[in-house]
Amino acid sequence: MSIVINIDVVLAMRKMKSIELAKLIGITEQNLSILKTGKAKAIRISTLDALCKHLKCQPGDILEYQENNQ
């Protein structure tokens, strides 16, 4: 996939655990894991908004485009 999700990087920078973030944004740990691993097919704007709010970051800090070399 061309879009890379950097939630783990931002979590580490904020010294926050996944379980804590999942509770704050109102999704399950399993769904957060799906987002973190890039297995999600879509992300709601409201979820991205909550991620940015609680991680105190911009959407570009979480989402990154990488050109495929295939």
Automatic annotation (TrEMBL):
Lineage: Bacteria, Pseudomonadati, Thermodesulfobacteriota, Desulfobulbia, Desulfobulbales
Species annotation: Candidatus Electrothrix aestuarii
InterPro entries: Cro/C1-type_HTH (IPR001387), Lambda_DNA-bd_dom_sf (IPR010982)
Domain HTH cro/C1-type: 20-62
One term of GO molecular function: DNA binding
Tree of life domain: Bacteria
Record's protein name: Helix-turn-helix transcriptional regulator
CDD domains in the record: HTH_XRE (cd00093)
